């Protein structure tokens, strides 16, 4: 394909992208909402925000507030599924539970509150 053919193809792609965006088939807001809905039941805010940054998008203020408000409850659900809701018996099991939740992207504050049994 020559240079003119490549330019014509690039213009066609650009027009297609514009058409998709105008009709809301391609939307950053929908991408963010979809990713949050897919990940919220298994991961914490830190992990979700990292994935969104990798995609080059960010949640709006309302979405961030919803995630923050629900993080303790979401962490509790993940913790109960994994550990059966049993408080750690010793320091080693406490450390293991903390590492697991931190690896899932839950903040250290939420992890501490959860394992201390603090409810809000």
Terminal CA distance: 63 Å
What's the alpha carbon Rg, rounded to whole Å? 21 Å
Query: In what range is the share of β-strand residues?
Result: under 5%
Query: Level of helix content?
Result: over 70%
E-strand count: 0
Q: What number of structural domains do the residues give?
A: 1
Q: Residue-averaged pLDDT, rounded? A: 90
- The tally of helices reads 6
Secondary-structure content class = mainly alpha
Uncertain stretches: none
- Biggest sheet statistics: none
Shape: elongated
* Element-by-element helix/strand order: HHHHHH
Quick take:
This protein is an all-alpha fold and 120 residues long.
Structural account:
With 120 residues, the protein is an all-alpha fold. The chain has one domain (28-116). It has helices at residues 3-22, 28-39, 45-55, 61-83, 91-103, 108-116.
């Amino acid at each position: 394909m020559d240079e003119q053919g490549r330019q014509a193809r690039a213009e066609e792609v650009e027009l297609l992208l514009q058409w998709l965006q105008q009709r809301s088939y391609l939307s950053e807001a929908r991408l963010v909402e979809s990713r949050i809905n897919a990940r919220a039941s298994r991961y914490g805010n830190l992990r979700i925000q990292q994935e969104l940054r990798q995609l080059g998008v960010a949640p709006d203020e309302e979405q961030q507030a919803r995630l923050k408000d629900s993080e303790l409850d979401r962490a509790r659900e993940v913790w109960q599924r994994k550990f059966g809701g049993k408080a750690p018996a010793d320091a080693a099991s406490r450390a293991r539970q903390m590492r697991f939740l931190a690896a899932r992207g839950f903040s250290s504050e939420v992890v501490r509150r959860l394992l201390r049994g603090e409810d809000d």
